[in-house]
Design a protein that fits this description.
473 residues, two-stranded antiparallel sheet, globular
């Protein structure tokens, strides 16, 4: 369902702080709601449009978001369907880059998020921090931009113009071998990388300032979508290599976008709590009987390594510094792909008696043997299937302690056939697990379908709607 935000428009304002980088009006966005009485307009979406970010939803959400994020309008649908308002608290235990948290805040509802990926956690926490003075942000950002350009100029690089000389003659900064090996090969070209590292050094001199985190997030978004060589489809990959890129200008464009959105905020909005944590242990952080609703999308059981989606920005901005650190935070994920499975994992004990999951895991293993698949990862397909559903069972069991009686839940999940084309009906199996743990099944809403070229079937993405009755745990 599409919602259209109210029609009043605010201009950016502000004044020029330098001739090199004047503050320019950012493309206008519609003003955001300031209370729960906002009633958006609905209209029908096609299957191809339903997972897109609408132009009127770009404020705050577009500071940085996963390509695979679910759209804000989906969260709004369930806020409305669950009759949630400022008296309630919404939890997203797999909050990613904060779609549920931002929408909750816009509706005047306190949000709580958990995220195990350090960079995604950082992005979520910044996206719900609206107390920063936007004029301070833009003024200081231009100071940082000018310092960056001045330094580049001493090296014979005009940061405002494409470089037309011999790049090999430049004294370019690089990453050490250990750090470089963490990146997807050729994800960023040498000259843009050098510019990013110089800008980052100038930005880090302001590390203790309130605008530093917003500046860092702006750099992350510019890095991924304007500066790097990355391309996004079903998988992340490397597209056409850019010999040069307007690093400083791209960053300032993101800064202006953030400042513009901060100026749109009127009235009082509740604070949001965002924890860097494992969703299987959320009761260690969230108070008992404190949550009225859950709106979330956990990982799906497939071969997507979700850490690759944020690898470039995580490494360059200092959130991952070694393979050991990467491995350590992966252990806080629900196991959803074979590259995140470890010898001592034992979440499968939670679903050991679930006949349907056992049948699927056994079918995957038999097909692997019959096809002669012998790689180490392929041998783990059956095990990761058990671990995934076991991890989700563990999460749902722990979740019960923080839910209030009558709490409503919406889990966005998708069918998968990544493991040798064996169909996994994720929503159906999670429903069975939840019912065994005492949850009431309300309904399943179809979100969209995706055609699988491997199985020639339509894969469903759906929302499993549950209710916690408040029975003895």
């Amino acid at each position: 369902m599409e919602r259209t935000i109210g029609q009043s428009i605010l201009s950016q304002g502000g004044k020029e702080v330098s001739e090199r980088f004047p503050m320019r009006p950012f493309p206008l966005q519609l003003r955001l709601p300031v209370c729960r009485h906002w009633k958006p307009v609905k209209k029908v979406r096609t299957n191809g449009q339903i997972n897109k970010l609408d132009p009127q939803d770009r404020a705050f959400h577009d500071w940085y978001r996963f390509v695979l994020s679910f759209p804000p309008h989906l969260v709004r649908d369930y806020i409305e369907d669950f009759n949630l308002d400022e008296r309630h608290r919404i939890l997203d235990p797999f909050c990613g880059t904060g779609t549920t948290l931002v929408e909750s805040k816009l509706h005047g509802i306190q949000g709580i998020g958990l995220e195990a990926n350090p960079f995604a956690h950082f992005a979520s926490s910044v996206k719900v921090d609206w107390k920063l003075d936007p004029d301070v942000l833009t003024t200081r950002a231009r100071d940082i931009a000018n310092a960056t350009l001045d330094f580049l100029q001493t090296q014979g690089i005009d940061g405002n113009q494409p470089f037309d000389g011999d790049i090999e003659d430049l004294p370019l900064r690089t990453l050490d071998d250990k750090t470089s090996r963490l990146l997807i090969k050729h994800s960023i070209s040498p000259l843009p990388l050098h510019k990013v590292l110089v800008l980052l050094d100038c930005l880090k001199k302001h590390r203790d300032e309130p605008y530093y985190r917003h500046g860092l997030l702006a750099l992350a978004n510019a890095l991924v979508f304007s500066i790097s060589n990355l391309r996004f489809g079903p998988e992340i990959g490397v597209g056409k290599r850019k010999e040069d890129a307007p690093v400083v200008a791209s960053w300032l464009s993101e800064i202006d976008k953030i400042a513009h959105d901060l100026r749109l905020v009127a009235g009082s909005y509740p604070d949001s709590d965002v924890f860097l944590a494992d969703a299987r242990h959320l009761s260690e952080l969230v108070a008992p009987d404190s949550v009225d609703a859950v709106i979330t999308s956990p990982p799906y059981p497939n071969e997507k390594d979700y850490t690759r989606m944020t690898r470039l920005e995580s490494v360059l901005l200092g959130f991952i510094r070694s393979k050991a650190e990467l491995r350590a935070f992966k252990k806080n994920f629900v196991r959803s792909n074979t590259r995140g499975v470890y010898k001592d994992d034992d979440d499968d004990v939670w679903i050991a008696r679930h006949a349907g999951i056992e049948r699927i895991a056994d079918k995957i293993e038999k097909r692997r043997v019959s096809l002669g698949k012998t790689s180490g990862f392929e041998k783990l397909y059956g095990r990761v299937t058990r671990l995934y559903f076991g991890g989700m069972a563990r999460h749902l069991a722990d979740l019960r302690t923080v839910l209030r009686p009558g709490a409503q839940l919406a889990y966005v999940v998708g069918d998968q056939a990544s493991y040798l084309r064996v169909m996994i009906r994720t929503g159906q199996l999670l429903t069975e697990i939840a019912q065994a743990l005492g949850y009431e099944f309300v309904r399943t809403d179809l979100f969209r379908t995706r055609f699988s070229t491997a199985t020639k079937e339509q894969l469903r993405e759906e929302v499993v709607v549950l209710r916690w009755p408040g029975q003895e745990r």
